[in-house]
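Quick one - inputs below.
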Amino acid sequence: MLEIEGVTVAYGGVTALDGVSISVPAHGITAVLGPNGAGKSTLLSSIAGLVRPLRGRISYRDRVLTGMAPEDIVRLGISLVPEGGGVIGELTVEENLRLAHMWRRDPSDRGKALDEVMALFPPLASRRSMPAHSLSGGERQMLAIGRALMSRADLLLLDEPSLGLAPKLVTLIMRTVRELCAKRGLSVLLVEQNARSALAIADDAVLLSSGRVIASRRAGELAQEEELRRAYLGY
Amino acid sequence: MTSPVSTLGGRVSWLRLTLLRNAVLGIVLALVAALGLWALDSINPFAVYQLSTVTYIAIAAAGLTILTGLNGQLSLGHGALMAVGAYATALLLKRYADLNPAVVIAASMVFTVGASLIVGVAAARLRGPYLAGATLALAVGLPGVAVRFSDVFGGDAGTPVPALTPPDAFSSVTQELWFAWVGLVPAVITFVVLANLVRTRYGRDFRAVREDEIASSLYGIRVARTQILAFVLSGACAGVAGSLMAYTSNLAAPGSFPLTLSLSLLAAIVIGGLGSLPGAIWGAFIIVFAPDWISSLNDSLNLPARVSDELPLALFGAVFVIAMLVFPHGIQGGLTRLWRWRARLRASGSSRGAAAGDPT
Amino acid sequence: MSYFIVLTLTGISAGMIYAALALALVLIWRATRVVNFAQGAMAMTTTYVALAVIEATGSYWIGFVAALAAGFALGAVSERLLVRWVEKGPPLNAVILTLGLLLVLEAIVPMVWGAQIRSFPAPFSISATDVGGTFVALSPFNLFTIAAVLLVMLALLVFFRFTGLGLSMRAAAFAPSTARLLGIRVGRLLTLGWGLATTAGALAGLLVAPALLLYPNNMDAVLVYGFTAAVLGGLDSPVGALVGGLSMGLALSYIGGYMGGDLETVGALAILIGVLMIRPHGLFVRMAERRV
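Output:
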């Protein structure tokens, strides 16, 4: 469904991605793992249109994404949740959520979508009128994921949602992602440093290192491969 | 960047070599220019007068390009600092009519340094548009002081400045040529000094603070002091320029220092390339000569008075707009890019140039 | 009426005009991080347009609306065609560009309409209002000025706070990259922002022209005062623009009235430096915003 073909991305002399080819199936969670600096975030940025690959092509449901502006890629049903959530601190929780639905130009659906997100993440409901900068780390991730849901995306790109969160919250976030995926038939591309928790919920896994694909397996299989785990995932 | 392991002795002698080289270069260029001006004087004395204007505008622009280009402080008020230099000259000569010009210019510079110190200290805490606003107010407000205290400053009419006549030894030299030659001397000194300063620790500090204030202060650079030093330095240049301006126009009056002067200086350094000393010279040339070029364009096409009156201004503005759209790095930047592009063309011939691509 | 009260009332009225210009500068700064030095010249241009329309149709109000519409168009077109290219680069380039635009406008306007000083009509009487026998130093036109600016500010407040489009614009201003990731067409909204801002500027031009008269440079001083007002209030704050504008209006009125007209600009300078020394980011400091 999401085809990444031979993508190479370079920033001022450093090659972040080198001929990466990945095939992400529809429905289900694909984990993108690897050590620091492997190019995982760059991969998501390329898909979302924030970064333009030097070579290669990215297509989603047979539509070519490479070269499209980020705001147009969103309209195809892809939503990037950047590292740290990327919430707009000066706006309230509710405003952040409403904002994500704006492009749909469908005010009648907006209230409904909002209620769904509030029901899914009760802490957001209780803080709906507070500025987003007052939220804790975990709440910001909830808000960020909530925003992606507001845009009614089919493909979620999550960049290290567990970063800086306490283990309990990590479990909660991961479990929520898993449930959303199952309930709404979403596809998720999950970039994670925390390989263990990612593999626990993923269907497929891709291992990146120094901008190259090292391995691509079912998640369960990758979890079994001790050498790969020790060499690249640190456990 | 220089290796931290270089010896102090090594550093000092390297510096002295650069200083010597720049000084020699400067003197040679100045002599060439002086000769050129002498030749030009017999053909077109007005152009020589304009070139004398270029010398002091270039001095002011050089100081401003260091302040704004290197150190990152945007000042819209350097016209006012030139006014300080000009009035210092005028008032000094009013009191001591026979003072040697070199002494007068130096003293005016000192006065302006004092004023710049005050402004610089006030400005040190301000950033970006706030600094712009404060200096804008300075440019608009300071001339008003001269009008208010007209008994001291001569009010709107200003204070006259005695003509700078060539001494007996150079009696055959015309007034315009003398102005130009006199202007060359501080210009050369300014450029040589600044060119060297840029390579010292001070120049590095200026740049470092512009790039990243917090990192600079963590590294031990005293940010406020650096900002003030840069401001004072550029103020000194403006003071010298103002003094020369007073001498060559025989007047120090508020009308000579409108907001457009400060804005023109800014335009000069942007067109020439921010932080570039050669660019300051380019820029000075352009802002002095452009109105004339535009006017002569005017005369060749036959336009109604209404249009032709405004054409210089319109084209000047259009130049600013187009320059920013087409040459965002100024002329010097444009030349540098051209140079690099040619170098890359040559290099790609020899190797399989797998350029990583421009990350912008 | 005591002299002080007269000065105060005239100061408030003038202050509202500076506030309108300051608001225009603030809106543009918030959206695109550019100081539009051509804002005054743009307001002057739209006022000339108004005059042309008034002379053609005989109606002030049609001219009024024409000026606001022209302001919107001028701002939007400037952003889309010119400023867009310098928004990303060094801030000085944008400064020079807008200064160039200022020069171009101040040259083209007299090419079309001539440079002579023209008078501009006021829709209401400009003489002191008769309140039951005593004359209040606030003319009906002054009252209109105050009301118009307040109305525009209120309308903008409602727009930004309570409408979806306003929300999108705020997001585009605070965090443009993030907004893109949410599907928001940031570019179009920046153009819209410039359009709205220049409309506010056009209002200032219309309100100041009856007293100041109309000529190509008439907005230069107003730009300086408006800019000072915006900086005083803090460039990120529309409320600051209002407070800054009123402060400038009052201060200049008192200084001009008690210390002599030539000291106005010097006084403005002193106030500005004074305030910025204490609060280098203006009076209404917002928390440090990280632009994504």
